[in-house]
Amino acid sequence: MARVIAFTNQKGGVGKTTTCASLCGCLSAMGKSVLAIDLDPQGNLTFSLGADAPSSGYTMYNALKHEVSLYDIIQHTDVCDIAPAAITLSACELELPSVGREHILKEQIETVLSEYDYVLIDTPPALSILTINAYVASDWLIIPMIPEILSLQGFAQLKETIFAIKKYYNRTLEVRGILLNQYNPRLILTKEVEELANMIAEQLDTDVFEQKITPSVVIAEAPAHGKTIVEYAPRSKSAREYSDLAYEVLGLEKPKRVEKKLGRGRPRKYPRDEVQYY
Question: Which of 14, 29, 101, 256 has a beta carbon 3.0–4.6 Å from 96's, enabling a disulfide?
Fold first, then answer.
């Protein structure tokens, strides 16, 4: 049975899509079968994973409206399967039925659950009916954030929403952890926000992930090529960080790596004790 993981934070620009796409790549590299579901009307996950533009095809909007099944809209990419999104998803708030609307995504996922090891859901930066559907359908929530004060705003409402979903719709929902993106340990603000994040994690009965994601230009470059970080720059520091994060999320021991020590340039023509003078 597949594990369903949603990436959520009502604050935008905290790395939800990047984290979701990167973990899709890491899990796929570990030999896992992965389905990515794009619930953001902006469709950034669809773009990041190199899926075809769904301008003329079916998307998650059609699946949530019960016009087609989830199986009918899945696209196959080099990394994983993906259920694409389009701007029409923004209409779901008004168009979904009033009765049972919170369970639609869960019902659709259950039709394909046996075919995957993991289902990863990218949610929009808002506590909308799309986000609630993701919470109801998920086993785990991962909350990415950046070490800035504004990134902490809205956590009170997020906490209340999670507790309400656990009480009324999904008693097994678990916050797997809080992920700090764009982490720079040299900044005082980073340390201060990290302390606050640990306090929030305690209230949510979870932890801040030990693995942090540091700033890197390759993280921004990878989506432009329709690739995950492990495809675009597999030997980069960012790829190692996301790989270690994947192991931590799954509760597995991180792989031990042997760092090769590089020399300091070309070897000397003459050893130090055989220097010749002319």
Answer: 101
What's the sign of the alpha-carbon dihedral 50, 54, 55, 59?
Answer: negative
Cα-atom radius of gyration of the chain, to the nearest Å?
21
Burial 134-168 (b: 16+ CB within 10 A, else e): bbbbbbbbbbbbbbeeebbeebeebeebbeebeee
DSSP conformation letters of 233-252: -TTSHHHHHHHHHHHHHHT-
Question: Which residue shows structure tokens 């520091």?
Answer: 237
270 CB burial (10 A radius; 0-12, 13-18, 19+)? exposed
How far is it, in rounded angstroms, from Cα 252 to Cα 250?
Answer: 6
Q: At 158, list the tokens.
A: 């997020």
pTM: 0.89
Distance CA 139, CA 136 (A): 8
Q: How confident is the model at residue 278 (pLDDT cuts 50, 70, 90)?
A: very low
pLDDT digits (tens, 9 = 90+) for 72-102: 999 999 899 999 999 999 999 888 888 889 9
Neighbours of 125 (CB within 10 A): 18
